[in-house]
Design brief:
34% of the residues lie in helices and 18% in strands. By secondary structure, the protein is α/β, with parallel strands linked by helices. It folds into 2 domains: 344 residues, Alpha/Beta hydrolase fold, catalytic domain (Rossmann fold), CATH 3.40.50; 255 residues, Rossmann fold (3-Layer(aba) Sandwich), CATH 3.40.50. It has a 9-stranded mixed beta sheet, sandwiched between helices. The chain has a 5-stranded parallel beta sheet with strand order 15-14-16-17-18, sandwiched between helices. Helix 8 runs parallel beside helix 10 and helix 21 packs across helix 22. The longest helix has 18 residues.
């Protein structure tokens, strides 16, 4: 049953041990809620004589700050056009770090204490963060990155930092909290909720995340977390905040008070325990490891360091590890990342260590801002898709009961296709398709894991309780399906039984994905080996389900077969003008990362298989996809015909 183990990402089938390969871990899906976000105030200010900016201030009452108040955000709308379609520029300001030890003592950045960044940031404070970085003492606006975006018509979202957690908390317990043993660290949850809310409330094209200092760490969490959901943001700018094990090389300097910006009592590993996943350096989720080991490229990233920045110990003598490579301390901090980027084929990422430059150079006039501009231009030249947004855990309402409502529950190997369905259906002349998604990454998106998880199960039930779901799509493979030799999947029966109670004529779709880690297989033949047998077993399972639920129309489809067909064509030289490599940039590869997430040609082709499964649309009747020289309609038709022969 090794093919099924590989399909749901439980490990390499050729690995005889049970140890997790360091490049095969899963980025956890970040649970978050927008339900308690409230608009608290609106303000219109005049700038440059007669131009206006509308500022909208929000409070998210779901997430409490470390000591008092709640997480907040400030939307700065485009100049003179508050309702305009615009790219969203998410700015994560700086603010240092901090944690309580077991004795209740707070350890932080020099000049800070427990009250610095553990309280609610009101509208004036968030506005201050922007103004103090953009204005000189004489009130003159400086030429820096945030100012340039505002002048270019971006919509800016300023998010708050009030757990002192570099924006990376995911709902874990706040260790050693002095007054509340149930307090949580919520930085990443609250930031993503603010982004979700902004995108659903304002017309948005691309989404960029710009982090300075503490925020430089936080934007990496945004990049990888949204990518894990199959919905990557457009790009990130990480300025003077680089998460890396190399920081541990400087711990002695901190403890002796010889340099850096942390108090001498501050300990990196104790702070990492507070923040959790993204600062657990035993998990290779930090930039240099994700790029080198997991070939992460879903979100283009530019990393900026000032070579004269005391936060990377420029104020101390070079440590031996730096001197051995003739590097400064700041150069040493970024060196492993530089090597990872240099060794990544056609890497979308950049690292710049700017000489004679201090902390957060994108906040001040200087070359960093031109580097950011050039990075944006490079990404926009690839014509990135607009950011697609769905609520994953906070909105289970059906917008129109007259629509053809389709609910997909599962992991990212299905979600990316579900996201295409509304637009693709419209292209096919179907105007009433409404798509809903409940997603969890990797094996946690299999039916059994969704049923076992209280939050996901109740969300899915809430959708089904409306009685308005026309199609429920689940995706392989539960552990039960694997362990019984593909004979049963109790969770699929559980979901179907619940679905038919309120949706008697519901259609149940069982989607079959592809094997992950495609580069672990020498060629397409080896990659596809035994998947046809596995799909036959999936079809047999659907027949049993249909017999047990005769009022439900049960159907199967194998969109994963598209991956095998495209790989065979690539290896035969039949995709020369469309695909440059097996894994790499989304626009020119079958897979966009080592895990095996779909590249654009695979997304477009697989979506046609989904469209046929849901609406019966023959791919050959669709308009030609002129962006590809290959007629992907024929590729989709071929895989459908092969499935029909099962």
């Amino acid at each position: 049953m090794f093919v099924l183990v590989s399909i749901i990402g439980l490990g390499n089938p050729d690995d005889s041990t049970n140890e997790l390969n360091e490049s095969e871990f899963e980025i956890p899906i970040v649970s978050r809620s927008t339900e308690l976000i409230a608009l608290e105030s609106e303000e219109t200010i005049t700038i440059r004589g007669n131009s206006t900016l509308q500022l909208d201030y929000y409070v998210n009452y779901e997430y409490e700050c470390g000591l008092s108040g709640y997480y907040t955000s400030l939307v700065i709308n485009p100049i003179n056009q508050p309702d305009a379609d615009a790219p969203l520029w998410v700015w994560l300001h700086g603010g240092g770090t901090g944690y309580w030890d077991e004795e209740g003592i707070y350890h932080s950045t020099i000049g800070q204490d427990q009250d610095t960044m553990n309280h609610q940031e009101d509208a004036a404070k968030l506005r201050w963060h922007v103004e103090v970085r953009m204005e000189t003492n004489q009130g003159i606006l400086e030429d820096q990155t945030l100012k340039r975006r505002i002048e270019e018509g971006y919509r800016v979202l300023v998010v708050s930092l009030c757990d002192h957690d570099i924006y990376l908390g995911m709902g874990t317990t706040y260790p050693n909290h002095p007054t509340n043993p149930d307090a949580q660290v919520n930085g990443l949850q609250a930031t993503m909720a603010a982004i979700d809310h902004a995108i659903s409330s304002y017309p948005t094209t691309q989404v960029w995340a710009h982090g300075t200092s503490a925020g430089g760490h936080g934007v990496w969490g945004l990049a990888t977390s949204y990518a894990a959901e199959g919905n990557p943001i457009t790009g990130i700018i990480s300025d003077s905040g680089l998460t890396s094990p190399t920081y541990l090389d400087f711990q002695n300097i901190t403890e002796q008070g010889l340099g850096g910006r942390q108090q001498s009592t501050w300990r990196a590993l104790e702070f990492a325990e507070k923040v959790g996943f993204y600062t657990n350096l035993e998990i290779p989720a930090y930039p240099e490891a994700m790029i080198s080991q997991s070939d992460f490229r879903a979100v283009p990233s530019i990393f900026i360091l000032g070579d004269d920045d005391p936060f990377c110990y420029s104020d101390a003598d070079p440590i031996p590890q730096a001197s051995a490579k003739n590097l400064s301390n700041c150069g040493h901090l970024g060196e492993n990342l530089r090597v990872s980027i240099d060794n990544q084929l056609n890497s979308p990422h950049e690292l710049h260590v700017i000489p004679d430059t201090g902390h957060v150079p994108s906040n001040d006039p200087g070359p960093a801002n031109d580097l950011v501009d050039a990075f944006i231009e490079r990404i926009l030249a690839t014509n990135p898709a607009n950011f697609l947004h769905h609520y994953y855990s906070s909105n289970q309402t059906i917008e129109d009961s007259e629509d053809y409502n389709v609910l997909y529950i599962g992991h990212s190997f299905g979600k990316i296709f579900a996201q295409q369905m509304e637009d693709l259906s419209l292209l096919a002349g179907i105007t009433n398709h409404s798509q809903y998604i409940e997603m969890s990454g990797g094996a946690s998106g299999a039916p059994d894991a969704l049923w076992a998880d209280d939050g996901h199960r109740e969300n899915i039930k809430s959708y089904l309780d409306t009685g308005e779901i026309d199609v429920l799509i689940m995706i392989c493979c539960s552990k039960d399906f694997i362990e019984t030799g593909a004979q049963s999947d109790e969770a699929i029966w559980n979901f179907t039984s619940y679905a038919v109670e309120s949706n008697s004529e519901i259609r149940i779709g069982l989607a079959f994905p592809w094997k992950d880690f495609p580069e672990d297989y020498e060629n397409g033949t080896e990659y596809r080996n035994q998947t046809d047998w596995a799909y036959n077993s999936w079809v047999n399972l659907s027949l049993n389900l249909s017999r047990d639920f005769p009022t439900a129309d049960v159907f199967t489809f194998h969109h994963g077969a598209v991956m095998y067909e495209l790989r065979d064509m690539f290896e035969a030289g039949e995709l020369e003008n469309d695909v440059e490599q097996l894994s790499g940039p989304e626009s020119t590869s079958i897979f966009r990362d080592r895990k095996g997430h779909a590249g654009q040609i695979a997304i477009d082709t697989g979506a046609l298989v989904w469209l046929h499964a849901i609406h019966g649309v023959d791919p050959l009747t669709m308009p030609e996809f002129t962006q590809w020289e290959t007629d992907i309609r024929e590729v989709a038709r071929k895989t459908i015909d092969e499935q029909n022969s099962v």
